[in-house]
Amino acid sequence: SGFRPSINKVFLGRLSNGEPVYVAVKDLCHVALAGLTGNGKGNLMRLIMAQLCAIGVKVVMLNPHYAPFDDSGNEDWTPFIPKLETHPADCAEYPSIAQYIKHIAVDVLRMRIERKRKGQPVGKPYFVLIDELPAIVGKVKDAPEHIAELLREGRKFGIYLVIASQDFQVKTIGVDGGGVRKCLKTVYYVGGDPATARALLGEGEDGKPVQVPENDLGMGTVMLRCSAVRYPQVAQVPFVDNEALYRLVGPSTLDQLQEDEPETDELSLTLEYEKSQQLKINANAKTVQAPLNSV
User: Fold this and answer.
1) Mean pLDDT highest for which of 156-165, 180-189, 271-280?
2) Phi-psi region at 24: left, alpha or beta (left = phi > 0; alpha = psi -120 to 50)
3) Helix-helix angle 94-102:266-287, to 10 degrees
């Protein structure tokens, strides 16, 4: 279509009447991508992530299941790598994820608070993309506390979260529900968990719980609530295929990654992995601030 996102115009989808939905980056705020696995959360992550990277804001991706290419969906994720604050593979292990979440929630947030107190610009919008939230909460003890702090305080200082999870129930996200979930100003729901739909989407224009067409959702059809769509509505989102990603973000680097990766048998990989774990854990505390020191 020739559309190019900007700091004041991020495309979220198209309502059933054909009207496009746009919001400014600051109004995108914290984002929830909720619903059943296989119903399109990954595509929504690509839609948001591609536009943020094209705009040039700061983006960090925390995904313990990260792979540069997803065979199941034929999704190339390598165009994002040069646009991110750090390589997603470097923050895919749980100890690294723990360090990054803590660093952003404590150090980056504090620094931006100090800048604002002095009347200085806080810096570029800073987006932390968190995929596989239940897995992270299950492995990273302090993750719920830090995530809750960023949801409550981050938007005042230009720090925003984009969180993908099958559901956003208290037992899953590990934080008290109501107040924290209200901080999620943009919500995509792709179906599969009516309780999450009720919690995130809220009431319709008639003041009653919104009616969710569960059987119609998934693979491009979503329920959307955002600053431009006050009451949740059904919307259509485009499929972000690899060609669209290359045009908006940049070329694939998959061939280069494959050339740089030597062939190694599974036993050698296992032995090398076990050998490197303690070194990696020790190094994380020393290196995590290096790629994030420009906030």
Assistant:
1) 156-165
2) beta
3) 20
